Amino acid sequence: MKVFISSLITGMEAERAAAKHAVELLGHEAITAEEFGARASSPQVACLSGIREADLVVLILGPRYGARQGAGVSATHEEVLEARNRKPLLVYAQSGMDAEPEQAALVQEIGGWESGLFRDVFESAEDLGRKLPSAIYRFGVSHASAPLDPTALRSRALALFPPIERGYYQGGVVLQLALAAGPDTTVLRPAEMEAQSLLDNMHQQALFGRPAIFNRSIGMEASFDGDARVVSQGERRSDGASVSLWPNGDMLISLPVPPAEGSMGFSVVLQENVAEQLAAALGYAAWLLDHIDRTERVTHVVPSVRLVGEHAGAWRTRAEHMASPNGMQVPWRQGEHQEPVLLSQAHQVRQALTMDAQRIIEDLVVLLRRKWVN
After folding, report:
1. Residues 319-369: tens digit of each pLDDT
2. C-alpha to C-alpha distance for 321 and 339, rounded to whole angstroms
3. Where in the chain is CATH 3.40.50.450?
4. Of 249, 215, 247, whose CA–CA distance to 232 is shortest?
5. CATH numeric code, 2-142
6. pTM score, two decimals?
7. With DSSP H G I counted as helix, E B as strand and the rest as coil, what are the percentages for the chain, rounded to 5?
């Protein structure tokens, strides 16, 4: 395993040496900027390439932020931004430090990430050297699984969507989030899939999570569809919400998109409503994955989204609709608007579901809009 060590270099020499020793003690390869040697690329490109090459990033934060680079942030901060949606992170912050304002803001930014990374504090280089080996070892054990196959993972995400039958969705527009989890492994045994505790927790989060994805005034049903555990509300053949979970961590979440008001019989898709439902679906998916796989056997995911609605009309922003609720053009379609969309790099590290959710939502909404409008 290749481990990139990210921190300021000047003033953090002892901590970096301790981290390097911990990595090599376990038989892994440490990637450090000090050992890059002469390269044709700039130090910035070399460091960011080192992160892309690594399997794990160890981030060490002391009191100093460092000089701002061309991107407007310090070199370490830029490494954080590069790693946060691509690589697993082990974060260590020095305890009791009198941090510079920019460094305090960076620590707060990292601390605001809801989940998906290991965080700890250290008092000295020696303390860091004692803590790191066990953390790296636990990471290696929890991620020891079959090799990741991004192409197969992408195909599996698309295969999670059920066929669209004419008249299947009667009640308007439904957003469907398919999430394929990888490497492909068994996360839940049959007995765990049937456990009442799993069902209770899925119901609880669906009703009372922030945001909730189920309507508290509507009853819920539980069933199995093949190997998938399904919890649903309303008619699954209309606009009811539902969650399907497979033993390998794959899931399909369907949520109705609230219709726009005052559209004179036309079904208008509001971009903000789509984004809100996608955010709710992603949040629930991240929670469910953490709930069923606390040791993180799943390291990567492929999210794919589609909007289903035979009689859907124009795509508009809320401001556009309020300005002219009846002045719209409905494009002529043959079903292509219901095809699923994927990110340009379909597979994402699992952490991205929480650490980079906003970017994922923004990009997927843009791709959905292109399908709907064109």
Report:
1. 887 877 766 665 656 667 789 999 999 999 888 888 889 999 999 999 999
2. 25
3. 2-142
4. 215
5. 3.40.50.450
6. 0.68
7. 40, 20, 40
